[in-house]
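Worked example 2:
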Amino acid sequence: MSFNNCIQCSDLNRSNQHKLSSTSFSIRYKSSSIKNHLSLPRRYTCVYHNNIGSLSIGHNYDKDLLSSVTDQSAITGKWLKNKDHYEIHIKALISNKDDHHAPSRNKFLCENLSVILEAIASAESSLLKEYPYLGNTRVLVYFDSLDEEYDRAENWHSLKYWTQDYESQKNNKDTKTPKKKKKYPRRPPQMCPTCAK
């Protein structure tokens, strides 16, 4: 990945705008136990088009869902354990040798990725009730493109940031004694410095 002049999604794009409605996403769990328990591998398969989306959560990617769309339309993700904490890595395809429409695909993803992350957070609500600390899991988005300008990684907050009640939780926390902020926040390796805000 090259980050000299990387194009990024805006701060507004990376904000929780609470666009998710109950009718815009269907959510499917590939096993009954995965809903309430964290077991790896844990993978997401998502398609989103014309404000209608489908999200599948399982130990493997959903081949049926992937076969229903072009590779360009699918967004995949997985949980990874990094030493003593978890991360969610989302992969979004911007362009490949068969499709070179990087600007339009990038615009679509920047404008719609927030609602996809809201859907993931909504689907993981039972997991977060069982293990609240998993709300701090960082979400990293990898934009995969042949065009180096669009090939990048971005930090899209934590899983709890994308929940419906995040603002109320945050306001309750703000009334308590504030904790000291770390002077040097940790950034993942090979991330465009301005993308890690």
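The first strand starts at residue 25 and ends at 29. Residues 102-123 form the longest helix (22 residues).
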